[in-house]
Structure formats: C-alpha cells, structure tokens
Amino acid sequence: MKPSIILYKALPDDLLQRLETHFTVTRVANLKPETVAQHADAFASAQGLLGSSEKVDSELLEKMPQLRATSTISVGYDNFDVDALNARKILLMHTPTVLTETVADTIMALVLSSARRVVEVAERVKVGEWTSGIGPDWFGIDVHHKTLGIIGMGRIGLALAQRAHFGFGMPILYNARRHHTEAEERFQARYCDLETLLKESDFVCLVLPLTDETHHLIGKAQFEMMKKSAIFINAGRGPVVDEAALIDALKNGEIHAAGLDVFEQEPLPVDSPLLSLPNVVALPHIGSATHETRYNMAECAVDNLIDALNGKVEKNCVNPQVAS
Ligand code: GLV
Ligand code: GLV
C-alpha cells in the first residue's frame, strides 16, 4: 500500500501526478485547526506533509502520530518547530539551492529600484507628471562602485556578491558566522564585524534566516550606526529587523531609503506606516517568485519527500541526524 501524505499547497499537474504515483494524496487548503479537524483521519494516518508557509508546531504534530517526513517548498523553515520534529524523529526537507539565483536577482532589483527610485518615478510618469519635464527631485543615487554590505554570506549572499562585484564594480563587505573563502577570493569580499559593516556600507543587505539568534538583530542602535545616505535592503525574513525602529529611522532621516521583500507581518497590513513612506520599495515576498523557480522549488520539494519517505536524505535535509 502506498504511504499517505497531506498536500497543503497547489502543485503543477505533472508534479501532482508524480506525487500520486508514490503516495495516496489528501489535498487540503491549509493547516488551520478546523481544516485538520475536518480531515482528522487523513492527518492521523499521514506519513508525509508537503506545502509551504504554514506553521508546523507540536499542536499539529500531535494530530499526526504517523508522520515521518515533512517537505517545505522554501529555503526558510522558521515556521517549523524543529525541536518538536527532532523529538519525534520527523525529517524536515527544504529547497536551498534552486532559488539562489532568482532571489539574488530580486535583491538587485531592490537595490536598483530604491537607489534610482524606479517605482516612484514610474508612477509619476503614469499620472502624467513627466509632461512638465523632470528635475533634481526625480534623481536617484548611484549604485555602481558604491560599497555593498552583505549580512549573511550563504548561497544567496554569494550570488548577490557575484552580481555586485562583476556587474556593478561594487566593493563588498560581509558579516557572517565564519569567513567565506570563495567570497573573498572570487569577489574580493572583505569580512568585517557588524558594526564596521553598518558604518561603512552604502547598501546594507540582509539575507539571514530567522532564528532565535537573528530575531531583531537590526534595531534602533544598528540604524543609528548606518550612514544617513545608506539604503537598507531586507530579503531574508521580516522579524530579523525591528520594524518599528526601521520606520523611525526612515522617518527621521537616519537612513536614506529601504527596499523590503519581507516584513514582520505578512501580508503587510494596509495601514503599515511603511506604505506611506515615499522612500520605501515594498515587495510582497517575491524573492523566489518566478514561474521557472517556483516550478523548480515545487519539483525539488516533491522529490525531497519521495526521497525522505524512502530513507534517502543525502541532500536538502535540515535534520538528517533523526534518520539514524
Ligand atoms: C522564501 O522566502 C523561502 O524561504 O523560500
Ligand atoms: C531566505 O529566504 C533565507 O531563508 O535565507
């Protein structure tokens, strides 16, 4: 008999078919308690769980006593209680490699659009303001050859460094838990402590996952250290930044602008002060959201679940130690 799984995210037809050749699939809209209650038997017997974004915690796991593996269509897994998974020997699979280049492209888009005010001036063209010509109040600031600070030198940080170094001639500073030889040798990235990075960078790019250690890593004190001309970019996770402090820093002119793909609360509430600041480019968490990459992530997550439930966890596994 095929193992049964719960799918809580829509998949392209061909990937759903691939999944169904291996598993009996129960599709649900989300993992809310009422949904779980409605499909209690399917949850109780499921050995696998596939989807993204929703919270997976002890409360849910208690309803899934047969669960052996969960697979998220994302690189980030801060929405999972990893300790609870470990305690129950449940594997957690993710998609760390397939989205790297796309997310780095998104970060460059944020860098360029915040510095050159692309969104703002394009809107002014659309409402007819160009007809009276443009002046210095339409100008931006340069990106090329400015100093880029990268906080978090993982795969995405490295792909960003490559773009910035070769494409834009930008000197690169980085801060990470350890030195990254490849970044230093290929892109002349210079390791420095967080304070030095914040003080010296023209663009401060945050590409960190959310963990207990990174929560509110950037707050009032850190914004005060940045240049008044600095542009702050966050494409990791919202809660790594104290958003109230960011809003103050933008309002008080402690930093020049921000480009944000992630927020403390998502979707961003319509009354967020960030939405009324002209010096903010806010994107709806689209770091990896291209047709190609979202397909590749879904495929990777499907294959990860097939591998995990067949005892193969050589790659893409957050907690391979529970397999033994
Ligand atoms: C997106 O934010 C991801 O974690 O894949
Ligand atoms: C990006 O989404 C990350 O988790 O590094």
UniProtKB/TrEMBL annotation:
Q: In which domain of life is the source organism classified?
A: Bacteria
Q: Which residues form the signal peptide?
A: none
Q: Give the E.C. number(s).
A: 1.1.1.79, 1.1.1.81
* SUPFAM superfamilies linked to this entry: Formate/glycerate dehydrogenase catalytic domain-like, NAD(P)-binding Rossmann-fold domains
Q: Where in the cell is it found?
A: Cytoplasm
The active site consists of: 237, 266, 285 (proton donor)
Name the protein family: Belongs to the D-isomer specific 2-hydroxyacid dehydrogenase family. GhrB subfamily.
Q: What does this protein do?
A: Catalyzes the NADPH-dependent reduction of glyoxylate and hydroxypyruvate into glycolate and glycerate, respectively.
Q: Which NCBIfam families match?
A: PRK15409.1
Its recorded name reads Glyoxylate/hydroxypyruvate reductase B
Organism classification? Bacteria, Pseudomonadati, Pseudomonadota, Gammaproteobacteria, Enterobacterales
